[in-house]
Amino acid sequence: GENVEQHPSTLSVQEGDSAVIKCTYSDSASNYFPWYKQELGKRPQLIIDIRSNVGEKKDQRIAVTLNKTAKHFSLHITETQPEDSAVYFCAASKDNGGGADGLTFGKGTHLIIQP
Amino acid sequence: DAGVTQSPTHLIKTRGQQVTLRCSPKSGHDTVSWYQQALGQGPQFIFQYYEEEERQRGNFPDRFSGHQFPNYSSELNVNALLLGDSALYLCASSFWGGNTIYFGEGSWLTVV
Asked: Which residues of chain A neighbour B99 with C-beta distances below 8 Å?
């Protein structure tokens, strides 16, 4: 089955700086890569996603890049703000001809924004 | 437009007991998936329901079972509870064939 590795486990950046979180996946058939943000005690919330026919996607301060050949994808957050502090999860899945497979998640990155 | 709703929000059970968790999907969605999230870990896929049938299953034992009703709502049942079943159980809904899923707030299960 799919295996998703996520690094780093903890990332501390100064407010206003950029943060980058990286993930690798093992199944070359995976074609959907979402990122979720989870605040303490809350549900994971989808912040951005990318499909394998696209190399990069941007939404305001958040961007995701995908390298299918290397089987890795990254989340980039620019101009970080205190409210960006949370745990971020990457995930991967593939369409199976009917429904989509369940998501396989990384172990998460605890992003800390230092004032 | 109601999002994904789950009940109960918190519950405590004793080892060996059984538990039932409930989920109503986001309005318009027809597919429900369940995930288990242990403390400090990412969510793990349990199974997915569509048209009242289990369509996919993750690496979970038969003690975990589910059901989907004609109105698309769903239940997760766990039998013979173990201490290791203590976790946040997340329900997610989507359209059948769609990748994008939306999570509910979850049910916190503590097994003592």
From this structure: 32, 34, 49, 51, 93, 95, 100
